């Protein structure tokens, strides 16, 4: 496949970026999107030019490091798929592909396609944990948990903290991310103890970091590679109001 790429290049957070065009030649449809970028970078090295900076780690859809807006969609055109799990067969020969970083003021660009997502770390530090001693693995059925609660908690725990929900939201809201953490901890007995303090602290930190509010558009859910659903935001709002008026 031969492709025309428009890639955002930006030296650092203090400079103005711009799109630069590259030609991707003889790309295998079986390559991953990141492997295609590796090929471009190898060519840049041979030409003595600066490589394109982009985030990645596991390349297996589990770490949440990769974050690219591809043709206007966080993680690209496939639903429930991270950019690292996207393959070039999802594009057509001759396509033009535009690649940008996450666009949200709480995620400043560090370089090219890499943004600073440490605001998410600070939110987790504010309450995304449990402090009870859970000891070793308990015997099966020693702590009965309704199957529905366990399933919902596990679904919410799939969040990989990639930030696509923020990038997709016109308000740069982090509520889907925060709500996933609230659900995955509060639905299980070990997370009940700090439930009220947790939701208040997480929401306060989210606001302090400059993320916007949810206006029920749903673009976060559509962009989420782990299919975290909006009902988690509803659960978080209920817990937040309950804690606020207590
Ligand atoms: S809720 Fe989804 S899109 Fe948002 S950080 Fe978690 S996995 Fe990524
Ligand atoms: S590189 Fe780990 S999820 Fe994409």
Can you offer a commentary on this structure?
It is elongated and about 60 Å long. The chain is α+β, with helices and mostly antiparallel strands and 246 residues long. The termini are far apart. The protein is 34% helix and 11% strand. The model has no long low-confidence stretch (mean pLDDT 97). The chain has eight helices and seven strands. The longest helix is centred in the N-terminal third of the chain and has 14 residues, at 33-46. The strands form two sheets. A five-stranded mixed β-sheet has the order 2-1-5-3-4. Strands 6-7 form a two-stranded antiparallel sheet. The site of iron/sulfur cluster has 15 residues, from helix 4 and helix 5.
What can be said about this structure in brief?
It is built from 8 helices and 7 strands. 34% of the residues lie in helices and 11% in strands.
